[in-house]
Write a structure and sequence with these properties.
The protein is α/β, with parallel strands linked by helices and 540 residues long. The protein has three domains: 104 residues, Urease, subunit C, domain 1 (Roll), CATH 2.30.40; 121 residues, no CATH class; 276 residues, Metal-dependent hydrolases (TIM Barrel, Alpha-Beta Barrel), CATH 3.20.20.140. It is built from 19 helices and 24 strands. Strands 8, 14, 15, 16, 17, 18, 19, 20 and 21 form a nine-stranded mixed beta sheet that branches. A six-stranded mixed beta sheet has the order 3-2-7-22-23-24. The chain has a five-stranded mixed beta sheet with strand order 9-10-11-13-12, with helices on both faces. Strand 4 and strand 5 form a beta hairpin. The radius of gyration is 23 Å and the shape is globular. The two termini are 24 Å apart. The relative contact order is 0.14. InterPro entries: Amidohydro_3, Metal-dep_hydrolase_composite, Metal_Hydrolase. It holds the Pfam family Amidohydro_3. GO terms for molecular function: hydrolase activity, acting on carbon-nitrogen (but not peptide) bonds. This is Amidohydrolase 3 domain-containing protein.
Length: 540
């Protein structure tokens, strides 16, 4: 049997902790064989493309367990990204450049994915600085969900005046000494107020943006992801991603979790999903996985704000969980704080007595404040824990809320892994975290925040094989795809990344600079750069 593609003279990790080989043969989008270069060359035929990797490091394509891909795809082409921006001065320069190059009236957007502590200036921009670099063009800069700043042109475009700010709620806005809004909104609700006033992209723009975002993820070695829905998303946001998939331009395997669009609409919209949705069905690149991350908006917590969980909340969660379990739906529910995590586990225990949850692979998303006493209960239910590197940005806030000692075990990764709980890794991008997976891998290895502070206990740090396993086979388990993706064993899909340096041997801080020089999805080149760029053109 001959191969369509052969990769030779590489340093190929077939699976985290598994054997490393020099060569790989691919046929019909799947791994045909792995072994030495001499062994694999035997699969070459007259039409086989042979690529010499020159000793480069190859890993299975990364699988992000929780990322807000669909929502970000709606606006991606209109955004600037500051994930690797080295300073506020450089960030302002990118805004100035966009302000003169874009069509008149178009907003310049920087919607999350960065943190002011990554800058030597230690802060984000103010209105005066945005006015200086973009005096005539509306600009929107958001830092996580802590705040967002618009310039004067943005205030005009959004209709932000003392009157509109008071009508919306004065606590959502920052005010100057003369009682006027400064252009800065506060918290998630303030950001949502501004979102509602941004112009909506056309469907064609959304389609182009979503396709480009999938390619940008390929640049960072991501070939699959679980989309977490997210606040402000509902049944009406998926048209673009389905059209990109229909056109064959979706270059990341996308597993959707869906949920209600707003508080008060949960019952109606959940009933609709249960009536018409088919979980775990779809194409090879776009599939409805299940329900999440928001189950009930009243329980959708933030790390630093206590939730007063009522008996009515508990009863409603059990009711919704029962309906979803009865319908055979996988569920992945967002929960940061102890009181919400306990509510989720207790509700799962009630439902599990009637509908076993283990076959449905339900999971807790984030789960930072799971405690040692809950680990056994999570394992008994067959729940997974979908962790992200949110503490890279949020470590200081969590330490302020719970104390530095408690944060050392947030979450208790070693206890979870030792207990046999399925654990996976991801980013939670695009607003509250960077979409660059190497920032997450770096955090799992070092336990350091964006500001350089070490906050994680030694026992909860992972080695490089462990971190990669969580980011590949671990996340594939959450997708019911652990026999399809996350490894490069024979029969698996040929989703892989040829890295710019050796993930396993470089200095740990160099991991923050890694990218993919060649990304394959089902054996097809979807990203290539540098010396390997020609492969992408040959594959078209």
């Amino acid at each position: 049997m001959t191969a369509d593609l052969i990769l030779v003279d590489g340093d190929i990790t077939t699976s985290a902790g598994g054997p490393r080989v020099a060569a790989l043969a691919v046929r019909a989008g799947r791994v045909l064989a792995a072994g030495s270069t001499d062994e694999i060359r035997r699969y070459a035929g007259s039409e086989t493309r042979v690529v010499d990797l020159g000793g480069r490091c190859v890993i299975p394509g990364l699988v992000d367990n929780h990322i807000h891909f669909v929502r970000a795809g709606l606006t991606w082409n209109a955004e600037l990204r500051w994930e690797r921006c080295p300073s506020l001065a450089e960030g302002l320069r990118t805004i100035a450049e966009a302000a003169v190059s874009r069509p008149p009236g178009e907003w310049v957007l920087v919607i999350g994915g960065w943190h002011e502590r990554q800058f030597p200036e230690g802060r984000g921009p103010g209105r005066a600085e945005l006015d200086a670099v973009a005096p005539e063009r509306p600009v929107f800069v958001q830092m996580m969900y802590d705040w967002a700043q618009v310039n004067t042109a943005g205030m005009r475009a959004a209709g932000l005046t003392p009157e509109t700010a008071h009508a919306a709620g004065p606590h959502l806005f920052e005010w100057d000494d003369e009682g006027r809004p400064t252009g800065r909104v506060l918290g998630m609700e303030g950001c949502k107020w501004l979102y509602a006033r941004l112009p909506k992209e056309t469907l064609d723009d959304q389609i182009a943006s979503t396709a480009r975002l999938s390619r940008d993820l390929n640049r960072f070695a991501v070939t699959s992801l679980i989309d977490g829905g997210g606040v402000n998303t509902g049944p009406d946001v998926y048209q673009a991603v389905y059209e990109v998939d229909r056109r064959g331009e979706l270059t990341v395997r996308t597993f959707l979790t869906v949920h209600a669009s707003a508080r008060g609409r949960e019952a109606e919209e959940i009933a609709g999903y249960l009536r018409y949705g088919r979980p775990r069905h779809g194409s090879g690149t776009l599939r409805l996985l299940g329900f999440g991350e928001v189950v009930l908006y009243g329980l959708h917590d933030r790390v630093h704000t206590r939730v007063d969980v009522t008996d009515a909340d508990r009863a409603e969660l059990v009711r919704v969980f029962t309906d979803l379990a009865a319908g055979g739906w996988p569920v992945q529910m967002h929960a940061h704080r102890p009181e919400v995590i306990e509510t989720v586990i207790a509700a799962c225990e009630q439902v599990n007595a009637r509908y076993p949850l283990a076959p449905l692979r339900w999971g807790i998303v984030h789960g930072e404040m799971i405690d040692a006493a809950q680990v056994g209960r999570v394992r008994a239910l067959g729940l997974g824990v979908l962790t992200q590197s949110l503490l890279r940005f949020l470590g200081d806030q969590l330490a302020g809320a719970f104390g530095a000692e408690r944060v050392r075990d947030a979450p208790p990764l070693r206890a979870l892994l030792d207990a046999g709980v399925p654990v996976s890794a991801g980013t939670d991008a695009m607003r509250g975290a960077s979409y660059d997976p190497f920032t997450s891998l770096h955090f799992y290895l070092t336990g350091r925040t964006i500001g350089g502070d070490r906050i994680v206990a030694d026992e909860n740090l992972l080695d490089r094989d462990e971190a990669l396993r969580l980011y590949t086979r671990g996340s594939a388990w959450n997708c019911f795809a652990e026999r399809e993706i996350g490894a490069l064993d024979p029969g698996f899909r040929a989703d892989l990344a040829v890295l710019s340096d050796d993930y396993f041997t470089v200095d740990v801080d160099t991991i923050l600079t890694l990218e993919s020089e060649l990304t394959l999805l089902g054996g097809r080149p979807v990203h290539a750069s540098g010396e390997l760029a020609a492969i992408l053109e040959e594959g078209r």
